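Sample intake sheet
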Amino acid sequence: MTDNSSIAYWKETLALVRNILIVWFLVSYGCGILFAPALNNISLGGYPLGFWFAHQGAMYCFIAMIFIYAKMMGKLDEKYDVHED
Protein backbone atom coordinates (compact mmCIF):
# COMPACT_ATOMS: atom_id res chain seq x y z
CA MET A 1 0.00 0.00 0.00
CA THR A 2 1.42 3.37 -0.96
CA ASP A 3 1.55 6.31 1.39
CA ASN A 4 -1.29 8.12 -0.39
CA SER A 5 -3.59 5.11 -0.35
CA SER A 6 -2.67 4.43 3.27
CA ILE A 7 -3.64 7.96 4.25
CA ALA A 8 -6.89 7.72 2.27
CA TYR A 9 -7.70 4.36 3.88
CA TRP A 10 -7.27 5.74 7.40
CA LYS A 11 -9.24 8.88 6.59
CA GLU A 12 -12.17 6.75 5.41
CA THR A 13 -11.81 4.42 8.39
CA LEU A 14 -11.87 7.30 10.85
CA ALA A 15 -14.84 8.86 9.05
CA LEU A 16 -16.74 5.58 9.36
CA VAL A 17 -15.92 5.28 13.07
CA ARG A 18 -16.91 8.93 13.60
CA ASN A 19 -20.28 8.39 11.90
CA ILE A 20 -20.96 5.21 13.88
CA LEU A 21 -20.15 7.04 17.12
CA ILE A 22 -22.47 9.93 16.18
CA VAL A 23 -25.33 7.48 15.61
CA TRP A 24 -24.44 5.73 18.89
CA PHE A 25 -24.58 9.05 20.75
CA LEU A 26 -27.87 10.10 19.16
CA VAL A 27 -29.52 6.78 19.94
CA SER A 28 -28.23 6.31 23.48
CA TYR A 29 -28.05 9.82 24.86
CA GLY A 30 -30.36 11.62 22.45
CA CYS A 31 -33.33 9.26 22.14
CA GLY A 32 -32.96 7.79 25.62
CA ILE A 33 -32.51 11.05 27.55
CA LEU A 34 -32.61 14.34 25.63
CA PHE A 35 -35.47 13.65 23.24
CA ALA A 36 -37.37 11.29 25.56
CA PRO A 37 -40.10 13.78 26.54
CA ALA A 38 -40.91 14.47 22.89
CA LEU A 39 -40.69 10.78 21.95
CA ASN A 40 -42.96 9.78 24.84
CA ASN A 41 -45.90 11.25 22.91
CA ILE A 42 -45.52 8.31 20.50
CA SER A 43 -46.43 4.83 21.67
CA LEU A 44 -44.75 1.59 20.57
CA GLY A 45 -46.25 -1.67 21.82
CA GLY A 46 -48.15 0.17 24.51
CA TYR A 47 -45.03 1.88 25.89
CA PRO A 48 -43.84 5.44 25.36
CA LEU A 49 -41.20 5.56 22.61
CA GLY A 50 -38.64 7.37 24.79
CA PHE A 51 -38.92 4.63 27.42
CA TRP A 52 -38.63 1.95 24.73
CA PHE A 53 -35.45 3.52 23.30
CA ALA A 54 -33.88 3.82 26.74
CA HIS A 55 -34.55 0.18 27.62
CA GLN A 56 -34.73 -1.88 24.44
CA GLY A 57 -34.45 0.15 21.27
CA ALA A 58 -30.90 1.28 21.96
CA MET A 59 -29.73 -2.33 22.22
CA TYR A 60 -31.33 -3.21 18.89
CA CYS A 61 -29.69 -0.19 17.28
CA PHE A 62 -26.28 -1.09 18.77
CA ILE A 63 -26.47 -4.64 17.44
CA ALA A 64 -27.48 -3.32 14.01
CA MET A 65 -24.57 -0.86 14.11
CA ILE A 66 -22.12 -3.73 14.76
CA PHE A 67 -23.27 -5.52 11.62
CA ILE A 68 -23.33 -2.31 9.58
CA TYR A 69 -19.80 -1.43 10.72
CA ALA A 70 -18.49 -4.91 9.89
CA LYS A 71 -20.09 -4.82 6.41
CA MET A 72 -18.86 -1.31 5.60
CA MET A 73 -15.37 -2.01 6.96
CA GLY A 74 -15.17 -5.15 4.83
CA LYS A 75 -16.03 -3.13 1.73
CA LEU A 76 -13.45 -0.53 2.68
CA ASP A 77 -10.79 -3.21 3.16
CA GLU A 78 -11.57 -4.66 -0.26
CA LYS A 79 -11.44 -1.21 -1.85
CA TYR A 80 -7.88 -0.69 -0.59
CA ASP A 81 -6.90 -4.36 -1.02
CA VAL A 82 -6.13 -5.00 2.65
CA HIS A 83 -8.85 -7.61 3.13
CA GLU A 84 -8.35 -11.13 4.40
CA ASP A 85 -8.99 -14.07 2.13
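Comment: The mean pLDDT is 91. Residues 3-79 form one domain.
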